[in-house]
Amino acid sequence: MDTVHITSGREVPVPTLPAGVGLTALCTAGERGTESRRPDRLFEDRVAQLLTEVIGESPRTAGLPGGRLLRGRAFMRDVVALRTRFFDDELRVASAYCRQVVLLGSGLDSRAFRLDWAPGTEVYELDRGDVLRFKHSILARAGEQPRCARVAVSADLRGDWPGALRAAGFNPWRPTAWCVEELLPYLSRAENDRLLSSITAMSAAGSHLVADHFDTALQRSVSFSATARVLRAVGAAWRSTLEAPDGWLAPYGWSCALTDPAELAHRSGRAVPGLCGPRTGGDGHMWLISAAR
Q1: What is the model's pLDDT at position 18?
Q2: Percentage of the chain surpassing pLDDT 70?
Q3: C or N terminus of the chain, fewer CB within 10 Å?
């Protein structure tokens, strides 16, 4: 377990970003940086903006195929923006009564630096050490300061990550807000079951869970199939789908609410992304999940 202390005001070398899921985190951050530059942006992520500038200066430092940042098609860019806003809003609400927030597979997430957290909130960012080191170099360059007590925890989600989290100061007897963004599809169904079991075991009454996934029909759609081929090429293939979020969560003691991405787009003043609209090539669903215990 590594605790990362942020150093501001000086530039540090940018290490090589790990391949696979670490690369998808970079692509997501790139889309967030693009969204942040819009006059009608749904959020502002200055760290993501700086990240895309750094990669633009020296793309090969990120270990990208051909030295290019793999940017999503327009439909994925819209999905990333809406999904980010959904998670932001849910975590803001949950933080009113959950003073512990855990970002699982946190990647290059900068919510500890850009959301207004309630006093006394602790945000734990859990990911592999190589991803966290890359992120640390960007944060040091940005000079951003966290708006909470931030603890970065180096752990593999396929290992004893609960032990690493507790060793970093996490208290399982306090209500916790769990952020599981862009993670479940990259784990198998059995791994997702183990993940949810571990989350549940460390979730006191009043805890909150925010997650996303999609079903098999959406995975087989034309748009998703094209994206899946790109992900497989960089070693980050999707490994599972989820047909009924409530049926998965209920046996673990979670009550589930789902947000329709199309309705979220309407509320946000955005066009419905093609991926979530009527022309996806099937009747698939993208799940935006909010659960309470």
Answers
A1: 59
A2: 76
A3: N
Average pLDDT for 119-132? 94
Residue with tokens 């909130």: 121
Domains and CATH numbers, the chain: 21-292 (3.40.50.150)
Amino acid of residue 106: S
Nearest-angstrom CA–CA distance, 33 and 69:
13
> Which residue's structure tokens are 């003691």?
253
Distance in angstroms (rounded) separating the CA atoms of residues 215 and 62:
31
Both tokens of residue 58? 């020296």
Q: At 173, which amino acid appears?
A: W
Reading the block at residue 154, the tokens are 């180096």
Write down the pTM of the prediction: 0.86
Which of these ranges, 60-64, 100-104, 197-201, 252-256, has the smallest mean pLDDT?
60-64
Q: Would you call 153 helix, strand, or coil by DSSP?
A: strand
Exposure of 70 in the CB half-sphere (CA atoms within 13 A): 24
Q: Which residues are bridge partners to 148 per DSSP?
A: none
Inter-residue contact 161 to 79 (CB < 8 Å): no
- Output the CA–CA distances (angstroms, integers) from residue 291 to 9, 142, 179, 226, in the order listed: 39, 34, 11, 31
Q: What is the CA radius of gyration of the chain?
A: 18
